Amino acid sequence: MKGRIFLLIITVFVCFSCGNSSNKKGEFVFPEADSVPSSEAEKLSPEAIADISRNISSPVEIANLLQLLEVPFSQNYLATSIDANKQSTNFDKALKMGILGADLGYLNMYEKTGSSLDVLSSIRKLADDIKVGQFFDFESIKRLSLNKSNLDSLLFISIDSYTKIDNYLRENDRGQLSALIIIGVWIEGQYLATQVVSQYPDTMLIDRIGEQKIILNDLLLLIRPYCNSGSEFTSICEDFQNLKDKYREIKITFTQGDPVSVEKDGGLVITQTEKSIVEMSDEQLKGIIEITKKIRNRLISNN
Amino acid sequence: MKKTILTISFLLAIGLLSYGQASDQFVSNCVMSAGATAKYLKDFRIQLGKAVPQSELRYKANMSLWKNTKYRFTMCNTEESKGQLILNIKDESNKVVLSSFDQKTGKTYGYVDFICNKSGIYQLLFDFTNGQQGSGVGVVSMIK
Could you report the predicted ipTM of this complex, rounded to two decimals? Predict the structure, then answer.
């Protein structure tokens, strides 16, 4: 018996020693033999859900657009009223984690480290409460937030932490919490865009808001399986259906063209000559701004 | 006996941690190689075995890309990969809008910048050159 156990220890040790030696050489090790996703025909398969979560417009992209438009940072857009200690259900905790995740992306992009540490502490509390705190690299994010020199690393670790949480929840039959985090991230990004556009009505930002029509169906697909899982889910499903209705008459058309490629500094630069054009009236935009504000404020009000 | 079980558990935990750290470090290095002004958005971690070369690349994933945004797609492969990681992007009408591999010259680009003017959900297709075995990561960043 002792001999077998010794052999097992040696085997385990040898296996992982191999892994460690390859690490020293900087090699890449994957736990799975092949990572080709299965058929796309499987609707709402894990791969389809993963695709949906990738399709959601990142709040970092919204913040990037705001910086491009030279829109100044404003604390007023943040969900400062959320108290992580007052969230009683997993529904609230996951949803608020998503909302605060979007705020963290906005703060990171504008390098507002003081406020981002407060948001980070709240996310840490919520993540621990729903037992996914082990995937959030708080210490590294905190260190990088204080040291403003490496924004890209900060974005990578922050976004990667959320991706790991998302994967873990879906793999462990807690997909409803994953869906709520994604919904939270999206609604806060949408709130940010719609609030800014009220003050800075730039065409690029108006178009970005109109183009969210492209992914609204995906968001509904994500949340729909849980619409009958309690009153909180039913309300959020109704909210998103109402939002979708506001988008119904908005038209997105495309012009044709072939991409133009040029080599530059050893890389390739491709310019897309096709264009998407958003047809949205001021009245329609106003309707979207109003309903987004209503939904988002309802979601953050139940502390 | 308890001691033995504890030892095995400890070794297993150390081993699993090493696995995660190795892939994270590789991805992190690839993210950093995208350039000082690049802002990380997403990554795709790919591992494929050898296959008969096909017209269509094997690893597929969807991602939304937004107009008025300049994206950088950076491809990194591990030392032991037999082929180089390549990327094609198709739009919703299945038209190829980006390829990091020039079929005429056989040249492979380590990164491709894409100035997006049409918002939509795109299909990202990755593979290794000539259907070779390999592992790597494709990093999507935004650049100015």
Answer: 0.85
